[in-house]
Specification:
The chain is globular. Helix 2 packs across helix 3 and helix 3 runs antiparallel to helix 4. The protein is mainly alpha-helical. Strands 2-1-3 form a 3-stranded mixed β-sheet. It has 6 helices and 5 strands. The longest helix is centred in the C-terminal third of the chain and has 20 residues. Strand 1 and strand 2 form a beta hairpin. It folds into 2 domains: 85 residues, no CATH class; 59 residues, no CATH class.
């Protein structure tokens, strides 16, 4: 990926990872390595629409920050999308948008979930380490101890 289009093809600009990193750091402490890893899946493209970068940014901010920061980042950049979207989760048969009306149990359940992606670029060792740390956090939260 070397170029970004904002609205029209004539709006093309060179992509600068430092600029992208700076925009993310306003919302969460996202490590440079995580940014580079996330960008590898779109690095094959010569030109990319900025909305794809915003989606990557939302995911990184949610991972290294919190959902409200990710929503703030999206709101600040939503002018690059044709129409608004709302994230929905299916929890025990119900579709819900935000977590603000959830009780502590449902929030804890959501935070312990393994996040999946279609094109995961995480190797099995990294995935297993993350699952193990999530299970330790689960044990600490629900059993009162870490094993």
């Amino acid at each position: 990926m070397k170029n970004i289009v904002y609205f029209e093809p004539q709006d093309i600009e060179k992509f600068e990872i430092d600029r992208f990193e700076k925009s993310l750091k306003q919302y969460a402490n996202v490590p440079r390595e995580a940014i580079e890893t996330a960008l590898k899946e779109v690095d094959e493209y010569e030109t990319l629409h900025v909305s794809r970068l915003v989606k990557i940014g939302v995911g990184l901010i949610e991972e290294f920050g919190d959902e409200m920061s990710a929503r703030d980042y999206y709101d600040a950049h939503k002018q690059y999308f044709g129409e608004n979207f709302e994230r929905l989760r299916r929890i025990t048969g119900y579709l819900v948008g935000t977590l603000e009306r959830w009780n502590d149990g449902k929030r804890a359940e959501e935070s312990q979930r393994v996040k999946h992606s279609v094109n995961s670029c995480v190797d099995d060792l990294t995935r297993n380490e993350k699952l193990q740390s999530q299970m330790l956090a689960y044990n600490a939260a629900y059993a009162g101890k870490a094993e």
